[in-house]
Specification:
Largest sheet: 8 strands, mixed
CATH architecture: 3-Layer(aba) Sandwich
Distance between the termini: 42 Å
Oligomer: single chain
Strand order of the largest sheet: 4-12-5-11-10-3-9-6
Shape: globular
Structural class: alpha/beta
Strand content: 5-15%
Order of helices and strands: EEHEHEEHHEEEHHHHHEHHEEEH
Number of strands: 12
Length: 458
């Protein structure tokens, strides 16, 4: 019979299975090691809380995403920071069932794990580009014009504010991911980073999946075979034999998930090598972006699952990048997402396909997190506030109002399976303040907030 006390000196909360060359397989929560000594048991009394963001660049197609806006006219390109509100029959402010529009249909399988939030607004500080503030200031802790001598209302962002409280016990206080590995850096850092230590001090995003993997698992020194399941598999199997039946199942599922990440990385790297061998210029434009985004999402979940970080952000693409990219199986040829949003009349079908894909990736991550068991009968999703959002309410009008927001997880604190439609001019910062309070962080306000978003709370 399994006796966890027999190894109480061998394992701590964050488990590692060592492999060759210093590589280490970080383990998820396992009940077999949850009953250690008294001091460790006290630390395990409550699962760790996490915060994560899934950012959509260049806005969305409103008529495909927002309930009630399906008959909205296709807008013309409208330049910078327009305020636009739909005059049709949208839900009144309050709590409603979720209407699964063509884009939101991707959430049907996780409908009871998410909340649609509409009607939230941001303020635009004139003097810079709409796209630049859309990403860089999405999580900013200050209101417009509060930072002197700055063209941006930008200070320490929400992920770092939260990490100051819940990220100090992890190897990485925060993890910043960006699905933009293009080499043609045609825009400034403000278009391509959503995480900031403070005004003018960017938290650089990681963009190469292999480098992220190496950082998480210490495989950088392995030149021939850097896959962790190959390096540490024998030790992992020996550990697996010492686990309870339930933990053996969880451990097998975890190893399969890591192996799936490795296979996807190998496949992408093989494609890139083939393109380079055929003298293809800028091979990043020809690699399947959908495969890349899914891989980055899997790395984000794995980092949260293993306790390597409690706070993570992921941009699925940069703002205002004109580089064509390949959406294999979705679009018939490489296209610029940003360019398409400026001509929706001729690109509506493709834009809707991309919006659906982005939301479906988020839904798949939510589903995966909901199956990862943690302490006290909870799941990784229960212990994570996971928010999908965009800094623009529409990629054609460049509006800063009526932003698309979906919140997943949050345990028993959030009202899930509902559509929360906010009163006009409700600040997005109200939601960020609610996140802070839900994580036990005491703040009277945040940026231009005017209080909690009470309708989302149970």
């Amino acid at each position: 019979m399994f006796n966890p006390n027999r190894r109480q000196r061998s394992f701590s909360r964050r488990q590692f299975v060592a492999g060759a060359g210093g590589a280490a397989l970080a383990l998820p929560w396992l009940e077999s090691f949850s009953s250690l000594n008294a001091s460790e048991a006290a630390n395990h009394a409550k699962p760790a809380q996490r915060l994560a963001f899934f950012y959509l660049p260049n806005g969305i197609v409103r008529r495909g995403f927002f309930p009630g806006e399906n008959d909205r006219a296709i807008p013309q390109f409208a330049g910078q920071n327009n305020v636009w509100r739909f005059e049709g029959e949208v839900p009144p402010p309050g709590v409603h069932p979720i209407t699964f529009t063509p884009t939101l249909a991707a959430l049907k399988n996780v409908h009871d794990k998410v909340t649609l939030v509409t009607g939230l607004d941001r303020q635009f500080q004139h003097g810079t580009d709409s796209h630049a503030q859309a990403a860089s200031c999405f999580l900013s802790s200050v209101a417009p014009f509060e930072v002197e001598n700055s063209a941006y209302p930008l200070a320490r962002t929400l992920d770092h504010v939260v990490a100051d409280h819940i990220g100090q016990s992890t190897p990485y206080p925060t993890l910043e991911l960006s699905c933009n590995d293009h080499k043609n850096n045609i825009e400034s850092i403000y278009f391509d980073n959503m995480s900031w230590y403070g005004t003018g001090h960017v938290a650089p995003s990681m963009r190469n999946p292999r480098k992220i993997y190496d950082r998480l698992f210490g495989t950088a020194s392995q030149s021939k075979n850097r896959n962790i399941t190959d390096l540490a598999l024998s030790n992992a199997r020996r550990l697996q034999a010492r686990l309870s039946m339930g933990d053996q199942r969880k451990f097998s599922e975890y190893l399969e998930a890591i192996r799936a990440i490795e296979k996807r990385m190998d496949r992408i790297e093989s494609m890139k090598s083939e393109l380079l061998a055929n003298d293809i210029d800028r091979p990043e434009e020809h690699l399947p972006r959908n495969e890349y985004i899914q891989l980055m999402g899997d790395l984000l979940v794995t980092a949260l699952q293993t306790g390597l970080t409690h706070v993570a952000t992921m941009m699925v693409g940069p703002e205002r990048w004109t580089t064509p990219t390949n959406w294999e199986g979705i679009l018939d040829r490489p296209k610029s997402h940003h360019g398409m949003t400026h001509d929706p009349q001729n690109n509506l079908e493709d834009l809707l396909k991309l919006d659906y894909f982005h939301v479906s990736v988020f839904a798949n991550l939510v589903e995966r997190m909901s199956t990862i068991e943690e302490a006290q009968g909870t799941t990784l999703l229960d212990n994570t506030i996971f928010t999908l959002g965009a800094g623009l309410g529409d990629g054609t009008t460049h509006q800063y109002n009526d932003l698309p927001i979906v919140v997943a997880g949050g345990g028993q604190r959030y009202r899930l399976g509902k559509h929360i439609h906010c009163k006009p001019e409700t600040p997005l910062a109200n939601l960020w303040l609610t996140h802070l309070h839900s994580l036990g962080i005491d703040r009277e306000d945040y940026a231009d907030s005017r209080g909690e978003l009470s309708d989302i709370l149970t």
